[in-house]
C-alpha cells in the first residue's frame, strides 16, 4: 500500500502549471487564516465570515472545496498520463494505493473516536461496537474525504465530460435522497465533520469540476479557457443558490418551504435544513455553489498568472507542498494558541496568527529550498 513519501528534486519550472500552483497556494494560505482565527471571539463578532458556522456558506467554507477542485484537476492530468504510459492496471492501481495512503495519513492526523481504558472494556465493546464507535466523526475529515471521493469517481475520471457531469449529478441526487431519508438529521445532531460518512457523494462535485477545468486548459489553453471557466462558475453558483432557495423560508409550523434564501456569506434567519448551504452536512447546495466559486477563483489565477506576470513566492511555496503545510499547521497552531486566549482582542489574535503563519511558512520554505516535497 502506498504511503506518503519524501520526494527530493522537482520538475522543471516549464512543466509546472503556474495558475494551479498559485491557486493551491492561495487556498493553503486561506486555510491557515481561517483555521487559526476562526474561533476567536473578536473574529466571531466582527469578521464572522472567517469562521465555519455550518448554517451558511462563509468565506471559511470556500477553502476546502478549492482543495477538491485542485485535486480533480491534477487527478485527471496525472491519470491520463499514466494510462498512456503504463496502462489501465498500473494507473488505476496507483489511484487506489494513493487513496489508501491518504486514509492512513488521515488515521494518524485525525485519530478515531472513542477509546477504552481496560481489556475488559475492549472485550465488552466487541468488533461491532468498535466500528460503531470509532468511525462516527473524527476520521472523516479532509484527507479521508479526498481519498473516498477519488475512489468513488475513479470509474469515470478518464471518461468524457458528459459522463463525468452526469456522474456528479447522480451522486448529488443520491446524497439528497439519503439526506432526506435519514442522514441530514443524524449528521447535524451527531455532529459530523465536513459531511461525514456520505460526504464523498457531494464532494464529488468540486472534484469533477476540477477535472473539467483541466480539459479546458489542455484543449483551449489559458486564454480560451477563461470564458468557459467563468461560465461554469456562474452556472454552478446560481444553481447552488437556487437549491438553497428550495428551503429558504419557513412555514408557520417551522418546516422549510421555498423562498429567497439569504445570499452566500450572510447568515440566514431560519433553522438549517436539507437545502441549507452547510459544510457540516456536506449539502448539495453548498458544494454546488462552492464548486462554482472555486472555478471563479481559479479563473482569476489563470488571468493573473498564466496570461499575466503575477507569481507570488509565498503561494508557490505553499502550493507546491500543500500536504506538508496541511500536516504541519495544526502542530504549529497548538504550540502558539496556549498563550493566545479565545477572548483576546483582535490585534493580539492577529499577532498570534502572524507568529503561527510565519513558523509554518519557514518550515515549508525550508523544505522547498532543499527540494523536499511531501507527496503520495
Automatic annotation (TrEMBL):
Keywords: Membrane, Transmembrane, Transmembrane helix. The chain crosses the membrane at residues 23-43, 63-79, 139-158, 196-217, 229-249, 284-310, 322-340, 346-364. This is Heparan-alpha-glucosaminide N-acetyltransferase catalytic domain-containing protein. PANTHER family: HEPARAN-ALPHA-GLUCOSAMINIDE N-ACETYLTRANSFERASE-LIKE PROTEIN (DUF1624), LD22376P. Pfam families: HGSNAT_cat. Residues 16-182 form the Heparan-alpha-glucosaminide N-acetyltransferase catalytic domain. The keyword Transmembrane applies. InterPro entries: HGSNAT_cat.
